[in-house]
Design goal:
The chain is an alpha/beta fold. It has 2 domains: 265 residues, Rossmann fold (3-Layer(aba) Sandwich); 124 residues, Alpha-Beta Complex (DNA Methylase, Chain A, domain 2). Helix content is 30%, strand content 10%. It has 13 helices and 7 strands. A 7-stranded mixed β-sheet has the order 3-2-1-4-5-7-6, sandwiched between helices. Strand 2, helix 2 and strand 3 form a beta-alpha-beta unit. The longest helix has 17 residues. It starts with 19 loop residues before the first strand and ends in a 7-residue tail after the last helix. Pfam families: DNA_methylase. Its EC number is 2.1.1.37. Belongs to the class I-like SAM-binding methyltransferase superfamily. C5-methyltransferase family.
Length: 421
Amino acid sequence: MIKENITDKISNKRIIPNKLTTLSFFTGAMGLDIGLEKEGFNVMLGCEYDKASRNTISLNEPSMGLIGDIRNYTTDDILRHANLNDRNEVDVIVGGPPCQAFSTAGKRKGFSDERGNVFLKFLEVIEDIQPNYFVIENVRGLMSSIFQLDVLDEFSSDIPNQSRKKKGSSLFYVVKRLEAAGYSINFDLYNAANFGTPQSRERIVIIGTRAAIPVSRLTPTHSQTGEYGLPKWKTVKSAFKKLSKVETHNHINYTEKRIKYFKLLKAGENWRNLPDELQKEAMGKAYYLGGGKTGFLRRLDWDKPSPTIVTNPAMPATDLCHPNELRPISVEEYKVLQEFPLKWKFGGTISDQYKQIGNAVPVGLGRAIGREIISHFEGKTADTFDDFKYSRYKKTSHLEFVNEFEKEIIKEKKEPVYLDK
């Protein structure tokens, strides 16, 4: 375990001609930032509250500026720590605000959650600094989150009362607020496997630009079965090959009770592949829950991308067991499934490391975001992939989502209001 006491620091980095000067918020383990740097971005500042993640940033990028809780800093503070003199020097702001407020697995309090309020502060930073581009990455739950602020502002007041209670009102609010700040916006729900990540991981990516023409949707580099002449999705096997010279795997362990069941399962199998008489015993009360429950007692499949990497590989509903061995996948295996460089160091305990990697943006997705912004910046025309399946879900693009939501608003405004006599 690596321990350090990391305090705020001012960046030693300098603006580099022909590289986009970038500020990173909710930086975490820097998956997004690694991807952007590989595409020619110059990340001057990280902003991170979590102590272990701050250690990770300092261990790997000691020259980068670093601040803590975004709510404690003014714009002048941010610029000073980034070693910048003026707002106009900022080309890009990126960040993945804490997702638990919008996650489908949580209580989903949206903006009324403390973490949701941090999201609102991030919007304020974008509005105040006015970068040429911004990127917001988040969980799919943001697309169905309900707006829940107790005090309305000038943007939410324009959304009729009933529409504010509809699924997706949080995202609609974010879009309309940033459009009002002068940004052309595009977003969609993307599976990272389509961009070379050996992992099926769906995240919404919102990109804004101050130019009149929005940034195009991300250009896929891979497809599930080789459609559009692209290479097929990368697999667990291809990722783990990178670890052939790694001698030690750091991992947590299963209990003997759980190992009993994993011994009966092969690569790619889960609890449903257990003998019938053992299924209820293995699942307990979870056996009677709805849904497919395919994450229970799940072994990874060598020949497919990994399921979404989570913050703990031994959680009952989201097991990530090694395809052959009787253990959860290791920190090192987490790293390659999220495409971190093998030399990347992580601070904190093993639990901290799992959490940091599990919360990170896959490097391949970060690179895809970077390529699309660079292409837009240089005035290039993006490749088009008609009817490409970016994720498992339909009507997730910016145009489809906003049009559907605005139809509901128009419908609500047209409906007569009946007053009780």
